[in-house]
Amino acid sequence: MQLGINSEFLYPLVGDVKLMYSMRAFGSYPECSGRYRKQLARKAEERDVVANPEKVQQTASTENGDNRVAVLLMGYGEVESYEDFANYNQQALNLLTAKFAPVPTWTYPPLAKLLALFDFHEWSHQHDNFISPHNEIFEKQRAGIEEQLKETWGSRVEVFKAYNFCAPYLPNQVLAQIKEQGFDQLLIYPLLVVDSIFTSGIAVEQVNKALVELADDNEHWLKGTRYIPSFYNQPSYIDLMAQMVEEKISAELAEAHLPSQTGIVLMNHGCPHKAKGFTSGITESEALYESVREKLINKYPLISVGWLNHDTPLIEWTQPHAELAAKNLIELGATAVVMMPIGFATENHETILDVDHIIERVKRQNPQVNFVRVPCVNDHPEFLKMAADWASSQVEALLSEDAVAVNPQLAATSHHRHHDHGNGHHHHH
User: Fold this and answer.
1) How far, CA to CA in Å, does 413 sit from each of 409, 417, 420, 421?
2) Helices (H), 253-368
3) In a designed cystine with 227, which of 58, 188, 223, 245 is the match (CB 3.0 to 4.6 A)?
4) What's residue 27's pLDDT?
């Protein structure tokens, strides 16, 4: 059977695809016993304490007969249990890699399992059983946004979270819960900075697939939907990015480094240049970079975009990658470099481990340069407030619109009528 790609490329592709779009997971191996299991149990207890607000997601108020809005807050999610990583990898391969990489789909299941070996070695052996904080932070974001929305809308709105790749919060699982609780209005809200096929695109894809599965025979349970694709061009978000950079410089670098010698790498998620005709996110990411740069450039002249790419064969990625960007700023005289992730709203493996690797490699060649890493916006109070404000206008629109009863059967009927019309009429010229 032909792979569809040269076999000499397969092994490096396997080694690099594991990095694509945060395929951060762990495998179930004998080495996972003993000290690791105890550590994982302690972390699970700590997460359970923090994650108690998730139980809010299990109930919804039915104290009145008004329409109610379910806000579906969506993110990638990160695997926390070693046992779940193969499923995570296969979901990512199906939804992400298939959009741009020439890898035949029949290879996905074995490839997902093979990636386990790489992931286990890297995260367990090299990084002391690293567990991503992404999901814990995302729950704080969900709870914070919901708290803000309830101040305005009370019990008429609930915020649910869904992860693209992580059960039990897959979109179809969460939407089934939303339907069961009697919600009839839905706001689809990917909490991802840039609009592309790899972010909000796959979110809508998963939601639409789930809505087909959950549709009733004669009348759809949803009476209204709204959508927030991204927020890369929101002035409040752009201002906060610049503010966080300046606060970091003021706190850690200003006393020892001149502004003209303080380099700033504004990091976006890397994008492949070709995505089978889909929106790749390059234009949107560049617009975000230029907007933040404009806020800082008059005081800090050494600024570069830095793309967090995944070096895969056959794929052309955005440039300069973050490591090259830092090196270029040092060549221009930077004595300190700020690494700021503007294209990520939630801390994850890439913004922690990948950036730390970049800093380590560059410092090895430039030990005199001081590096600081700014965290993602995470649960910053200003971010939670603005994120809720963006949602609030859409909630208002849903609650003020007249409900529309959609009968899925009519789509099939309309299709058959159109088909019959085409076959039953002949045009003579």
Assistant:
1) 6, 6, 11, 12
2) 282-296, 322-331, 349, 355-365
3) 188
4) 34
Question: In sequence order, what are the beta bridge partners of 262?
Answer: 336
Structure confidence at residue 280 (pLDDT): 83
Pair 302, 264: CB distance under 8 Å: yes
Domains and CATH numbers, the chain: 235-373 (3.40.50.1400)
Residue 1: alpha-carbon gap to chain centroid: 35
Report helix, strand and coil shares of the chain as percent, to nearest 5.
Answer: 55, 10, 35
pLDDT at site 298: 98
Measured at the alpha carbon of residue 407, what is the angle toward residues 405 and 411, in degrees to the nearest 5? 135
**Can you tell me the distance from the alpha carbon of 261 to that of 322, in angstroms, rounded to the nearest whole number?**
18
- Angle ∠(322,324,327) on CA atoms, nearest 5: 110
SS3 category, 25: coil
3-class state of residue 190 by DSSP = strand
CA–CA dist 41, 342 (Å, integer)? 33
Residues of the chain with pLDDT under 50: 1-65, 415-416, 424-429
**pLDDT given for residue 286 in this prediction:** 98
- Distance of alpha carbon 139 from alpha carbon 162, whole angstroms: 10
C-alpha 278/C-alpha 201 separation (Å) is 9
* pTM for this model (two decimals): 0.79
What pLDDT, on the 0 to 100 scale, is given for residue 311?
Answer: 73
Q: Are 92 and 178 a contacting pair, CB within 8 Å? A: no
Expressed in angstroms, the distance from the first to the final Cα of the chain is 50
> What was the pLDDT predicted at 153?
97
